[in-house]
Amino acid sequence: MSGYLPVAIFTALIVGFGVVSLAMARVLRPSRPNDVKLSNYECGAEPIGSAWIQFPVGFYLVALVFIVFDALAVFLFPWVLVLRTVGMPAFWVMAAFVGIIGLGWLYAYREGVLEWK
Amino acid sequence: MSPLVYHALVGFVVLNAVIGMVTYVTLLERKFAARMQSRIGPYYVGWPHGWLQPIADALKLMMKEDIVPRAADRWVYNLAPLAFLVPCILVFATIPFAPGLGVADLNIGVLFFLAVSALEIVGLFMGGWGSNNKYALLSAMRAVNQIISYDLPFIFAALVPVVLAGSLQLSVIVEAQRAMYGAFVFYPVLGQLAFVAFLVATLAAENRVPFDILEAESELVAGFRVEYSGMKFALIQLGEYAHMIATSFLGALLFLGGWLGPGPAWMGPVWFLLKAVVVFLVVTWVRWSFVRIRVDQILAISWKLLLPATLVLLMATALVVALRSTGGA
Predict the structure, then answer these.
(1) CATH number for A104
(2) What is the ipTM of this complex?
(3) Which of B24, B95, B153, B158 is the most exposed place for a label (fewest CB within 10 A)?
(4) What is the pLDDT of residue B329?
(5) Number of domains observed in the structure of chain A
(6) Please, are residues B283 and B248 in contact by the beta-carbon 8 Å criterion?
């Protein structure tokens, strides 16, 4: 894991940069809030209610299909590394797996899950 | 020198290089866009040709008042710019600028890049939700739609060079391209198709026109960052451009042979930078040439065309590699 020490330090540096630049801006900038400034932006009109309401998300089922394919992607990463040494057997195993998921994709397509509603 | 100090120094240099590149890439884009529209672009600040314009912009944004809407969720709202900035710059950690020149040339480089660059959605959604603004929330929802649609083609297209090189380490992938005239894009059929798919997925991953529905100015004003001002806005912009440059660098590493090129070894980083700028300019060229596409079209292009196409392409590449490997039947 020693290879990740530079990554950890780099992350700390990025956070440090963000915090320092925000702090510098805090010292430099003016602060003159008023009632209208602090209201939410809605093209100049008075905001109507809160934005935190329930509303239908058009891609809900697509998100479920996404999780299936994302799991496939997780299996692809180790597979590409051993492909050279294992050869054709590795290819056929993954081809069968992709084929099964492909059937699922076809089913989702036929059922109209991939349409925007 | 202790390794801690050494890594801190390297990280500091890379961080500053990234920030410097971001500031001047904004100028490059504005000049390029101006040229495409027969304008001049920034000119007067730092005469001639606006050389100091990015510096002036940064100073101006730092002096601007910071407004937090009364209705916003303060914690989420204030943390969002940082949560957005960190993954966007962190992806540079694994990019080698020349052999041995970079923060950390991880042996899982490509996986690290793809995983961390997908994390930006967390900061983006925090900004959209925390603002308690209808435009921002709709934009954040569209961003989620975008990432579930284009992350997979992006991964599959990026895996094609990985299969050809047999490694996830970016420096190994670059060296493997020596056998292919210095770039995987020259690989017959597979290389070109994968590069085109990668570019399309890149446009969507960077939320650029024609895939910029989440900041569609005509409907959502500025999308998830509509309530941000001053330095917080600056950090979000910085993150967005850093992500864009990082993806250009990844494209140059995976498909265009990174630092490979004629000339002595010190020319390597120069070649790499030039190739990355070419990728960036192609993306900018597309941005100023096409119109925005609709939400349902974005979903359809990804799920009905790009996803199956990239998966088939990846399997075809795997078949070629497996047939040529030692274990081939």
Answers:
(1) 1.20.58
(2) 0.84
(3) B24
(4) 47
(5) 1
(6) yes
